[in-house]
Amino acid sequence: MTEESFEPKIVGFLCNWCSYAGADLAGTSRTKYKPNVRVIRVMCSGRVDPLFVLKAFEKGADGVLIAGCHPGDCHYMSGNYKTRRRMELMRRMLEQFGINPERLRLEWVSAAEGARFAHVVNDMTEKIRELGPSPINGGATDE
Amino acid sequence: MSKPKIAFYWAGSCGGCEVAVVDLGEKIYDVVDAFDIVFWPVAIDTKYDDIRNLEDGEIEVCFFNGCIRNEENEEIARLLRQKSKVMIAFGSCSHLGGIPGLGNLSSRDETLDYVYRKTPVSGNEGGTMPCTTCVKDGNTIDLPALRTEVSALNDVVDVDYYIPGCPPPLPVIEGAVAALMNGELPRKGAVLSTEKTVCDECDKEKRKKMVGKARRIYDDDVDPSRCLLEQGIPCMGPATRGGCEAACPSANMPCTGCMGPPPASQEQGSRMVTAITSLIGVENEREATAEEVAEALASLRDPVGFFYMYSLPTSFLKRRYNDE
After folding, report:
1. How far apart are CA B248 and CA B245, in angstroms?
2. CATH number of the domain to which A120 belongs
3. Which residues 231-270 on chain B approach chain A with CB closer than 8 angstroms?
């Protein structure tokens, strides 16, 4: 795949209460942003089992984005703290697997931060584009 | 009427599984009474041709231990599959890839280079490297090549049952042998052990207490009556199938995960991430910055090597990648 034709496939897990609403705001505000993130709504970023991340990579994702409420703002009090610990460990593990840890990104996006959501998606898409296709399973398929 | 035939084979393994079979003690006579052992390289003098000369499916049950590390392992796995009615992966290596599976964190060339050139005890001044063909006195000797990666048995052949453990604990082997002799085997693909986790079988006291950092077992102040994980000692209990009666934690050593993932879980590493991060780094998390959280978790050494000590080749990511 040539560099110009490579479109990163990013799986985004967004929490229902903050980040999904933030993405919604970006949409209703008609903010333009890259179409590379496939959004999956979860009730809380703490619902994202590390298995989901591995599975996304195994199925050919070039990057995984997890977005949740800012620390202190979790609808369920502590879900985002759990995610922060898990994803920190996951990033270290990806590094040991020889996978660039930047392919896994954790961001805090509140319901009011539509512009920030757009920025995060654009920024991550460009970073992953620079990294190139995921080395796992020969990269993404066109399904 | 002749007795049904059984076979034992060791592929890429240490021989511990063979010792576990011998550990059956006098019960092995029951096995010998009921079955005819046609192939067991470690114990009886048989050749590969003895197996090649059998009819397809003539062996009733084959117990296969060891991972698939070289071409010979793979060839014999295929041969035994063809000749056996029931193929049982015996022990962690054939079940999950086992400790040799950690070799998938290095490339084949790195492994060979390290083993033959770089270890302090290599003593290989001429830099001789293993090759697959050797001519000596006009005779050609062929040796099996090392595969580029380690695989579990079911990556190369169809496997009917799995007996987990490194080596499989005696009660698990006895249970499996009894089921086999009474014709009470479960559905195909079953792991012949309990459905519980090691934690379920461990009788250490659990207080649901968080810790700031991971510790090592040789640190002082380890209370043997309490859960090791809750004292900050990484223990694979929550992510590991039981059947061993928590042998390691009972001896105050953390579980290392040899029995593989429990039935409700697809792989051990991700499950262990969830388990361990619900304990380590939780103290004062609300005031902590992301860097402080990272520092607390950095006390946990070599997470991939520990979480996937026995199951790397059958995990989701399977091996190391090269992501520039």
Report:
1. 9
2. 3.40.50
3. 265-267, 269-270
Interchain proximity A85–B290, CB inside 8 Å:
no
Residue B211 CA: distances (Å) to CA of B225, B250, B280: 17, 21, 5
The set of residues, in sequence order, having a beta carbon less than 8 Å from that of A81 and lying 6+ positions away, is A46, A71, A74, B282, B285, B286
User: Residue A2's pLDDT is what?
Assistant: 54
Residues of A in CB contact (< 8 Å) with B are 49-51, 53-55, 57-58, 71-72, 78, 81-82, 84-86, 88-90, 92-93, 96-100, 103, 131-132, 134-136
Are B296 and B281 a contacting pair, CB within 8 Å? yes
Element (H, E) at B159: none
Which one-letter DSSP state was computed for residue A140? -
Residue in chain A closest to B306 (alpha carbons) equals A93
Is B210 touching A (CB cutoff 8 A)?
no
Complete domains list, chain B, with CATH: 5-99+154-181 (3.40.50.700), 105-144 (no CATH), 198-314 (no CATH)
What share of chain A has pLDDT > 70, as a percent? 93
Which DSSP symbol is given to B55? P
Tell which residue, B206, B94, B98, B66, has the closest CA to residue B160: B94
Domains in chain A, number: 1
Which residues of chain B register pLDDT less than 70? 1, 324
Burial A53-78 (b: 16+ CB within 10 A, else e): bbbbbbebbbbbbbbbbebeebeeee
Model confidence over A51-60: pLDDT tens digits? 999 999 999 9
CA–CA separation, B35 vs B26, rounded Å?
A: 15
The ipTM of this complex is 0.90
What is the predicted pLDDT for the residue at B280? Answer: 87
pTM of the model: 0.92
**Gap between the Cα atoms of A8 and A129, Å rounded:** 6
Contact residues, chain B, for A80 at CB < 8 Å: none
Q: Please choose, from the candidates B40, B15, B10, the residue with its C-alpha nearest in 3D space to the C-alpha of residue B28.
A: B40
Q: Torsion angle of alpha carbons B7, B13, B18, B20, nearest 10°? A: -130
| Nearest residue on chain B to A133, alpha-carbon basis | B323
Note the pLDDT tens digit of each residue in B14-54: 999 999 998 888 888 888 898 999 999 999 999 999 999 99
Residue at A142 is within a domain: no
